[in-house]
Description:
By secondary structure, the protein is mainly beta.
Amino acid sequence: MPRPGGLSSPKEVSSPRQPQNPGDNPGDQSNIRASRQMANIGIDLPGGLPYQPWLVPIVKKRTDNLAIDDPHIRCLPDNFIRAYGMPHLLKFVHTPNLLVMLNELNAGYRQVFTDARPLPEDPTPSWQGYSSAKWSGDTLVVDTIGLRDDTWIDWNGSVVTEAAKVREQIRRPDFGHLEVQVTVDDPKAYTKPWTVTLNQRIVVDTELIDEICLENEQSLQHLK
């Protein structure tokens, strides 16, 4: 069902338009770039991410050694939080009861049930977790649990753990953009919940490409 400002096709709804950065052409394929939050997802938070004491030296070590143990450079999947900031295209396939997010890197995928089903009590931990969503006006509210321990969410080595509860509030302020507000409540890794906004731009007249990390991968031999 079309929802004003929602995730429906732009041909089905008219979204409100806001002033746009002249250098930010949402349809320009040459303008695909990583988010400024790719390296440090908490860069815009006063004082940075509220790490638990045990995590502080781990993130410092990972930052100092240029993320040598990063699962991403070892061709493992990116968690959806991290994928929002990476320079790899995402494609959202939206049906009445399911939202599928396709990631062109390693043919990754994530499924979000949009029928507001209850979250399982003890889900099997996975890279993308278990997600259920419902609409609140023109905002899709997605709750996720069941993530793996030590799941990296930026280049600095910040993580979420199995204790994490993640809420995304996804809205479409205009034709060319999605606003994704992410709140992480993970008492095992952080002293308090924190929220960041990870904005997404549409890229029109293009398709996902095969981007398989292990194909011609040459980085790991230099990291040994």
